[in-house]
Write a structure and sequence with these properties.
Largest sheet: 7 strands, parallel
Strand content: 15-25%
Radius of gyration: 19 Å
Strand order of the largest sheet: 3-2-1-4-5-6-9
């Protein structure tokens, strides 16, 4: 990895951003850790940043030559605010951009898919990370984690569909390489764990590792959409429920070797992830 330059990590206190920041600072890179409240991050320079606050953008970009992009959460049209920022970043001297997208969103697809499509024309060095669903969805404060702890239930509209769930640590490891290796990937990278699992299988592994009975409750697309609409804007709820339906139809039933190929080590299994996490989160 190169040790020159400064990286702006957007969402530096979030699930992947915090891990990317830690990997880069541990390797000796200068990192500007961007968050709404400029939260202190060990080894990094905290800077205030709000996607919806353009007055925070110029200072965050000052002296930066690469950026890790986490889209504004819950925004069904992130391109509207991200593309003006990216043009500003290019003008400010950013030469490499790594975008966090999703395996469910292709280039030119909905939401962040429009940013993916625009990225190669904006930067000579780039990558789009398209991870599958996070293993961290079953720990911490994610709705699945909450329902597991409070009710012993995971609710989805995925039916028997399988997903190559991935550890956020593996996503961060790929991101760190994409940001700092001598040559950028200049492509999109679909990231998965080593196994494709259905939510019935996830529930069984959680039951085995934690000793707490957990079941998968299968909802219809309409039931899932209506549950999500109570928690978020209807357009975003409809999109997420649609992703569950796509899983049921087999859209995420795949595994890739991208983590191994980029980082030189195998992606972590869900069983291994949960065994490590159960002491604090599960």
């Amino acid at each position: 990895m190169s040790t020159t330059g400064t990286t702006l990590v957007i969402g530096a206190t979030g699930t992947t951003g915090s891990r990317v920041t830690a990997l880069l600072t541990e390797a000796g890179h200068h990192v500007k850790a961007a968050s709404r409240h400029a939260t202190p991050v060990p080894g990094a320079e905290p800077v205030p940043f709000d996607w919806h606050g353009p007055d925070t953008h110029a200072a965050a970009l000052d002296g930066v030559d690469r950026v890790y992009l986490v889209p504004p959460p819950g925004d069904p049209d992130p391109a509207a605010i991200m593309l003006p920022f990216l043009r500003q970043a290019r003008t400010a001297g950013v030469r490499r951009a790594v975008l966090l997208s999703s395996s469910a969103v292709p280039e030119g697809g909905p939401a962040v898919g429009a940013v993916h499509r625009a990225l190669p024309a904006l930067f000579d060095e780039w990558a789009v990370l398209r991870p599958s669903w996070f293993m961290q969805n079953f720990t911490g404060t994610h709705p699945h984690a909450v329902s597991i702890r409070e009710e012993g239930v995971i609710r989805t509209a995925t039916g028997s569909g399988r997903v190559g769930f991935i550890d956020a640590g593996d996503i961060a490891a790929v991101a760190a390489h994409a940001l700092t290796d001598a040559h950028a990937p200049d492509t999109d990278l679909v990231l998965t764990g080593p196994d494709a699992l259905g939510y019935d299988g996830i529930a069984a592994i959680i039951t085995e590792v934690t000793g707490r009975p957990v079941v998968h409750c299968r909802l219809s697309y309409e039931e899932m959409r209506d549950r999500l609409t109570a928690l978020m804007p209807p357009e975003f709820a409809t999109m997420l429920a649609g992703m569950d339906r796509a899983i049921a139809e087999g859209a995420e039933d795949r595994v890739t070797d991208t983590v191994q190929r980029i980082t030189g080590r195998a992606a972590r299994t869900f069983h291994a992830f949960l065994e490590e996490e159960m002491g604090c989160d599960s």
